[in-house]
Amino acid sequence: MAGQEQKKTYTALKGQTYLEALGEKPSSSIIAVKSGNRLFDLRQTADSDREIQAVYLDSEDGIKILRHSAAHLLAHAITSLFPDSKPNAGPPTEDGFYYDFDMKPISSDHFPVIEEKMQDIVKKNYPIIREEYNRNELLSMFSNNPYKIDKIIDNVPEGGRSSVYRQGDFYDFCTGPHVPSTGYLKAVKVISLASTHYKGDDKKPAMVRIYGTAFPDEKSLKKYLQNREEALKRDHRKLGKEMDLFVFNTERAPGFPLYTPNGSIIRGELMSFMKEKNTQRGWQDVWTPHIFRDVIWKQSGHYAKYKPNMYVFTLEDGDSYGVKPMNCPGHISIFEREPHSYRDLPVRLSEPGTVYRYEKSGEVGGLTRPRAFTIDDGHAFMRFDQIVDEITSILEMIKETFKGILGNVDLKFDLSVMDKEHPENYLLVYRCKNCGSTIEARKASMEDHLLCPSCGSENLQPDFTGWDGATEQLRNALDREQLTYQEYPGEAAFYGPKIDVHVRDALGRMWQLSTVQLDFFMPTNFGLSYVNSESKPERIVMVHRAIFGSYERFMAIVLEHFAGKLPTWLSPIQAYIIPVSENYHEYAKKVQSHFLKEGIRVGLDTSSETLGKKIKMIRTRRPAYIIVVGQNEVENGTVTVRNRKDQQKTMDLKEFTKELGKEISGRNIDQFF
């Protein structure tokens, strides 16, 4: 119902509040309005005539507003309970919110008191009022909080104005919007604590980060908390330890994963899967070194942007090197080894390339945020007119990949496009109005004024033709695949529009995995061109694509999605043999030898423990099948097989091997019985 109502368009007249513009008294589920890509409070006054739509509490925008307001609720409670605390910032997140405070350390023991105070503020149902002040007034209001002062100085120019949101005796520097009153925040929960530093800089003041979440109703909150509890059980770090998949040695290699034999099996199977997909669609394997001289990183632009996150060093001979944070410059070096005709394109190069990035210690976490990870990286070099076909092929590959590994999961497609109101943020062609010459540049990165290279004029006009054409081709590819997608103006990288793909796991969590990124920047920096049909050089268009994203992060998601009970083709232990007693060890070893010859990954327990204890001990390793052998199996040449659901079946050894082989080779998600 809300989804249908939300499409209705209203007209807000200049001087009218948006609440008035909605006409009759709106439902209590309407918390804001939207005009274009901008969100407004219901009590705000329209500064011009504009078309608006109602924003409902349970919509995507509504939940973000709700959680932002819940962050203010938390700050209100903390500053009431701990008067010496100084709030920094509190944004909404994908599944909740957090707020950073300069305050004495607290523990989770304080959560009941904090939540009680929050509920007291909710019950009082304070109106949440937006007020505007000039820069000097804002600086005076927040004079006792250096963190707010920094934000005001950074965001409000001399003579400018900005907003403050007030609820009861609490107020915060914020652009909003927010829910109409604190009474909307009934389903809120404080979740956890973390330590951080101001602006993420460990040289700046230490801060307490408090995480929470909020939902439109108690039922949704309860479901989230149940899923969160289940997620803790499925945490890939816990599963990795139980299944003996990887090691993190904080003394010797902090943030760098080391894969055990079992973990290497999963990683290798995922790489084999991707190699097949690449081969089927014309991607050619390459290999690039892990270290390059710094000249390549300067040319690619990574030094300017990524140097603080790179591992760099200088040798005795004075040569400086950088460990690669990206694979693309290496692929470019391979592509440019020979000239290319328009007939040669596209050229598709792929590599499971390991990259290294220095993440701050507080940001490193398991396989989802390591300092070394391997990307299923691909770079296509093509003509402009080939974009739609190439993107379509990649989108098909994405759908095939996630359906093949995870099953019928939901995929969400986001198209990030440029914000034409701020062309200075993007690499664009500028045309001189005086002489007609063109120059390609990104204004925001230049210290001096952009001048015409021919006549020196500043009278330059941005030409959006290339960006518009490329963006339209991305739209065409998405439409060709009949995919529903949402556009995000201003979210494009400065060097081109992109498509991001989010995947919903078994717990309903959305993970951003695949990225398909058009790039006009690197072909410009490296002077990449091909010879067109008129024998003239023409600029290459480059596409960066990663389907999994990184093998590490995807492995973590797969482990949590299946709770460690991986499809048999991915399982490190596909069959685990347990003889009833030592009298059947010889037959168990024959079965093991048979499986090994058939390429089946098999384990064998010849310990003196009881059958029940052996089964219990191996459960944590999550083998696909447990095979028990005793007198009947020896006499009949059979095996008694238990699947993951503890269903049991006695089968002829060769019959079971045949069925198991089909399950593995078909990369089936479900077991054959």
Automatic annotation (TrEMBL):
Keywords: Aminoacyl-tRNA synthetase, ATP-binding, Cytoplasm, Ligase, Metal-binding, Nucleotide-binding, Protein biosynthesis, RNA-binding, tRNA-binding, Zinc. It is found in: Cytoplasm. It catalyses: tRNA(Thr) + L-threonine + ATP = L-threonyl-tRNA(Thr) + AMP + diphosphate + H(+). Binds 1 zinc ion per subunit. Its EC number is 6.1.1.3. It comes from the Archaea. The keyword RNA-binding applies. One of its GO terms (cellular component) is cytoplasm. Its cofactor is Zn(2+). InterPro entries: aa-tRNA-synt_IIb (IPR002314), aa-tRNA-synth_II (IPR006195), aa-tRNA-synth_II/BPL/LPL (IPR045864), Anticodon-bd (IPR004154), Anticodon-bd_dom_sf (IPR036621), Thr-tRNA-ligase_IIa (IPR002320), Thr/Ala-tRNA-synth_IIc_edit (IPR018163), ThrRS_anticodon (IPR047246). One of its GO terms (biological process) is threonyl-tRNA aminoacylation. Pfam families: HGTP_anticodon, tRNA-synt_2b, tRNA_SAD. Belongs to the class-II aminoacyl-tRNA synthetase family. This is Threonine--tRNA ligase. It comes from Oxyplasma meridianum. The lineage of its organism: Archaea, Methanobacteriati, Thermoplasmatota, Thermoplasmata, Thermoplasmatales. The gene is thrS.
